[in-house]
Fold these 2 entries.
Entry 1:
Amino acid sequence: MAIKGKKIWLDGGMYDWDKVFIHPVNQSLHYGLGAFEGLRFYLHHEMVAPVIFRLRDHTERLFNAVKVLGLEIPYSRDEVSRAIIETVKANKCPEGYIRPLVFLGGATRNFGDLVLVENSEMGFAKVSQVHLMIAVWPWGTYLGSEALEKGIRLATVAVPRPHLSHAKICGNYPATLMTKQLAMKNGYDEGLQLCDGLVAEASAANIFIVKNKRLITPPLSLSILPGITRDTIMTLVIDLWVHAIGVVEERSFGISELYAADECFLCGTAVEITPVREVDNRTIGLGKAGLTTKKLQEIYFKIVHGESRQYAGWLTEVR
Ligand code: PMP
């Protein structure tokens, strides 16, 4: 589908959105052997150019995921970061989402203004060429602005956690999509996965609860993705004492503790900070966004739009 003016970066070249092709005989497509990232860029409150949130950390996580797969990105961290900035610039979009993807394939061939990644050799022992593609698209609030304000309804679903879930690997994501689909089929906004009966994470977001003025989130040892938004929240709470809370307890908890929480919220690049007002038909707290959640949201949105000098280092200008 042609999207006018949209560009995709592939292996060092910038191409029109509808001129990039990948042969379907491809190891990554068949076996999920790839890794990706998801970043957001926002309008800066006083600059014309947008800013990318925590670019260095997302790039680092991409390199980690590729390492877990036993592969190597054929670019340096600086080159990948620069390519991400160039792609945002080329798309001339003020706010949106960035999707870098590392995948396998045969040689990259140009045919006029078209580019084709040729078939890769199939077979598990064959390692083909490692490719990097970066796409950008406009993306407003993931679950709608009402969700950000009033909170969402969350359902626990019986989808097992993937084994390599510390790394953002393509093969992990059927579990994510199934979680979301099952929850939505049952009339909920989002799904929540458990790990051995303990609360793990939502479909593409980490989870926090507040109980008796304590902020609690599942530990990384529980096979969850080390979310960059999760880390952002932990940093903010320690630095700023948000709503008189100055520490985050990283510990396991079950659904009974979740049902009885005073507040609950999801966090992630896509969902940003989204309050949860109900879990499995149980009202959480007062059934609306809690005060700690709202305060964190307010700080978060100021930071991503460049309204905080203290956290300006998390932003990369797209000049
Ligand atoms: N868990 C999963 C499975 C995810 O895909 C994401 C989105 N990357 C998150 C949590 C949240 O991570 P982040 O805050 O880095 O976007």
Note: The mean pLDDT is 95.
Entry 2:
Amino acid sequence: MADKIKVALVGIGKIAVDQHVPSIAASSDWTLAATVSRSGTVDGVPAYTDIHTMLADRPEIKVVSLCLPPVPRFAYAAACLRAGRHVMLEKPPGATLAEVYALKALARDAGQTLFATWHSRMAKGVQAAKAALAGKTIESGHIDWKENVRQWHPYQDWVFEPGGLGVLDPGVNALSILTEILPTPIHLESATLHTPANRQTPVQADVKFLNGITASFDWLKEGSQIWEQRFSTTDGTTVELLEGGNRCIVDGDEQPLTELGEYPALYALMSLLVRSRTSDVDLSPMVHVSDIMTLAHRKTAPAFEWSS
Ligand code: NAP
């Protein structure tokens, strides 16, 4: 068996602890060789507080996985690529489209792998939905993506700052699935964003694409959380993707699921990309978010505080 690949994890916060650390620990391909975070650490793993120190001290670590929020991420990603490391980006891959194009060019010129991950695309029912829709014409579709920001991003003020995306942070997960499973590209017709009076980014969004597909994104949903997409095609096929894409029903029948969970599947793909020195950077979900920000009507919503 090939040697395990050493990875450094940067930004030891919620998603690093919830998903990246356990997925790396459970993988036979990967070993967590260092962390870089101003305050976060992982038991038993050498911890750095500065990316440049880690890159200089640990030349044997060839891969860096960046779990920071999008705005600070570019400087870290560029430093890693310039230092000859392969880079894995949490979603969304950057604060702007142009900065991700710049990273893509850096990776290409350096012959390094850049992987802009979309964890929701790896949900277990997504490929079944894609297969069911292949070659068909969508008649209508609707996405309900309704979750509680206080549960998933507790006290993370960056989500309400410019570049934090607000409800489009989970919304881009839905769009990453949509852009993966649809047989033809779509584009935006209209959108409405509801932004709290005291914040920079929206808590609710209503979105309409030209191709008969609509979406309702809500970040104030209490109780049961809803991550669902439903489609019908002109030949009468119905496709339901439920539980964030982890359950797929076609014409009323449950479909077989892929084996790996979302983050284990991301690391499995990253190991293939690194070993073949190829990149995977699909910006289409982020293009839709950018278009929503460009075209949307704005409405002011009640002020948002973390303790309701
Ligand atoms: P987080 O916990 O708020 O941030 C992750 C870590 O990044 C923090 O612990 C912090 O570590 C570091 N950081 C924050 N701001 C920084 C800055 N300005 N400069 C340098 N380091 C900074 O966020 P998260 O929830 O893990 O989300 C991180 C990314 O994962 C986001 O892009 C998000 O969309 C994505 N994601 C989140 C979830 C979720 O459920 N929360 C799910 C899937 C994907 P130090 O203070 O120790 O440096």
Note: The chain has two domains: 5-116, 121-259+289-301.
